Amino acid sequence: MWQKNVHYLDYNASAGVSHSVRDRLISFLENGELFLANPSSRHRPGQKMQHLMYEASLVVARTLGGAVSPDELVWVSSGTEASQTVIRSLERSVEGVIIGAGEHSASHDLLEDLGVPFKAELPLLPEGSYDLVRLAELLKDARDRGLRSIGLSLFWANNETGVLTPLAELSRIIRDAGVEVRLHLDGAQVWGKIPLDVHATPADYISFSAHKIGAPAGTGIIWKRPGSKLLPLLPGTQSSGLRGGTENLLGMMATRFACEGLDPFGFHQKTMVLQRRLEEGLVRIDPSIQIWGWQERRISNTTRFSFKQFQSYENWIELLDLRGFAVSHGSACKARVIEPSRVLIAMGASRESALNSIRVSFGPENTPDEVDGFLRALAEILDQKGRAS
Question: Phi and psi at residue 186, in whole multiples of 5°?
């Protein structure tokens, strides 16, 4: 891993800056590109930057499916900005909005603020997938109220459990809804982890985050299906009025370099072995451990599990950190506050089980030895807590 003496098992929070991206950025800057002109300028240095932006968009587009055009991409500052831009645009173009209970807090927490006649939260089933039967009911309710258009925002893969949304079934429900549904998928956790063909999904918009694939934080992307519109928020500014500020060319180049190193098939094959090794080891340590979403189709790098015998938060993350293992209690955006995971609560977990849960998420540099070391450290902590009780 890129930090000495730390076994990093928190790739869903951030993949860090990969070695290849770091080296390519250094080379890019040392080869005379340190002077980054404004891409909107009409002189030759500015137009050169504009060309580099287009080349970066070409590379990114190829990772999203063979038929994706750079014109379908909007560059923003983060996955959060990407998702919120889509949802705010939907708010002004539809008559109702449904947001999944498993959505990232950056999207989910917008629901209360949306000024639309019809608002609803789509619940999660106990294994972590969305209740698509309930979705069909919500869409029928909207149709019966005379509404003509609904915005729908869901995860593609949940950042806490790794559970994947079944897109074929979702597509059928949308097709049969009797009301126009404009779908946004949060794709932050699938980019580089599974092969993507965004045109084959039922989505109108998909948001991505570059620091999940080995580029620095500060760059996000919205894919919008041809014919789908994003309403301008700031007329006269960058990206057709969607946002202000000069384009982050360095972030775009870093994202390009990260995309050139993506290998979804290799990622899946490697992390699937680590995930299986971890989960089999967890059950050996404590058969009562609950692995969330284990019966559902998940991305291969994510395991979320809970201990059932504790009544309050037992400082798992801090104790594991002292033993050299960086893992997560939940979404990094909420990590400063020890609260039960909203996602697990929505899946039916008790407050105690949700508090005493750990997320392990692997990256391409992790090894079986790290999994074994983590399991030994966790067993030692459980043994100490058992003796202390």
Answer: -85, 110
